[in-house]
Amino acid sequence: MTVHSFQEHFDEKIDNEVSIEPRDWMPDDYRKTLIRQISQHAHSEIVGMLPEGNWITRAPSLRRKAVLLAKVQDEGGHGLYLYSAAETLGITRDEMIEQLHSGKAKYSSIFNYPTLTWADMGAIGWLVDGAAIMNQVPLCRTSYGPYARAMVRVCKEESFHQRQGFEIMMTLANGTEVQKKLAQDALNRWWWPSIMMFGPPDDDSPNTAQSMRWRIKRFTNDELRQKFIDVTVEQAKLIGLTVPDPDLKWNEETGHYDYGKINWDEFWNVVKGNGPCNKERLETRRKAWEEGKWVRDAALAYAEKRKARKEKATLAA
Ligand code: 3HC
Question: What is the structure's pLDDT at 317?
Answer without folding.
Answer: 85
